[in-house]
Model the fold of this input.
Amino acid sequence: MSLILAGVIAFDGEGWLHYVRIGLGLPFVLFFPGYVLIAALFPKKDDLGGIERLALSFGLSIAVVPLIGLGLNYTPWGIRLTPILLSLILFIIIMGCISFFRRDKLPPEDRYCPTFQFELPVWKEQPLLDRVLSIALIAAILFAVGSIFYVVSMPKVGEQFTEFYILGMNGKAEGYPRELAVGEEGEVIVGVVNHEYQQEKYFVEVKMDDLVLPREGPIVLEHEEKWENPLSFYYPEEYENLKVEFLLYREGDDQPYRSLHLWVNIQGQRDNHGENAEY
Done:
């Protein structure tokens, strides 16, 4: 079952395979690791009862999986889907082989073999401690399964932000215009990437001292969608160390959501020989 789950994940199953992935993923995390560990530790059928094995399988799974994740956190692979999947499958295979080896050393009549005969005990005949433990076990299982379903149905939204950057016309973080003549256009590439987990409308504005150029937009982006476009600017007067601000607004914002700037020297107009003309 673990290998089937790995195959479904590897082929990125969609449609009905998505439900197969969820159906196998829950016991893969919550039951399988603890079950094979219990099978390896207690190969005799008289070592533990069925209810005890079931309870310990859930409990140890909840303990083993975070420990494996903690170990992966200190490896180059990190806590990601593929390393966790392969680590748990390897753990299940190793513990399964150990359990088969230990059972093979026992007489056939003493080996534990899973059975699926369910007999409901008479509630009133159970000792008080057994009743309390049964209620606690059922509550723990329902809580764990409910928590997993909640996480699956309502995934946590990550950090919400918007990337805003400017590049030179070569597409790199270099080659920005530093020296311009009066009225000469400078060009940069402006980029916006939406990581807001919803559709957003953006506007880009260029501001230079008391001069504000017409806004670029609206730029409508879905989540994880990117927009890049050349943007030009100019200034009609000489100005040393002019601060050219690139302001990003979202729809409805009164203040800039993000801002960037360049420092540009605006010099007198150049004559035909490339020298600055005097005013």
Remarks:
- Residues 3 and 40 are 20 Å apart (CA to CA).
- The longest strand covers residues 239-250.
- The chain has two domains: 2-118, 161-267.
- The beta strands are 161-167, 179-181, 186-195, 200-208, 211-212, 216-221, 226-233, 239-250, 258-267.
